[in-house]
């Protein structure tokens, strides 16, 4: 079972989508009545603590269901994805070369379904993904990566009962470590620029290749052909 992160994994961080998202999230925090400095501090704290700023808001602030969907409208849905992203034939070929008799391919994202579907459509990858596991922003008690509940619920939806059959790639090191801690078989950290995540405030690492808690560290998706060679067709 292959689990693919979407944002900053299926497209490069150089698109600067993460930076654009950071600006929008900050503006959303301010729109809730938070002073600028406090909005920045809470945004950074919630991102580091929960892997998703909105998750912190839902846990510590009474924002209700309405604001969860407003977050999506104000942040994700206003991103200039059509201008910033483009389909990459090499990434499509990579996914096409996964032998589907050996592995199913699902997406595992902290985004809402509207954003996830939009990105996959722009990248021309939607037909290569069987299902999308996403964060339901309409539910105030939703879980997200790196929370264990998010991974276990994803497995339930996919009908997977054996953790050791799961392969996972993500650009967030905490997310990767959480999956590995649950016993997922082979976890790959996708690290393009030596940071623990594509977020503009993610801390740089001196030696990313030596990161602990993962099975492999790659800087190009093409490297999956080597680290996951057992799921690709022979002709690849």
Automatic annotation (TrEMBL):
Q: What is this protein called?
A: Pyrimidine 5-nucleotidase
- What are the GO MF terms of this UniProt record? nucleotidase activity
Q: Which domain of life is it from?
A: Eukaryota
Q: Which NCBIfam families match?
A: HAD-SF-IA-v3 (TIGR01509), Pyr-5-nucltdase (TIGR01993)
A GO biological process held by the record: nucleotide catabolic process
Give any Pfam family that matches.
Answer: Hydrolase
In which organism is this protein found? Exidia glandulosa HHB12029
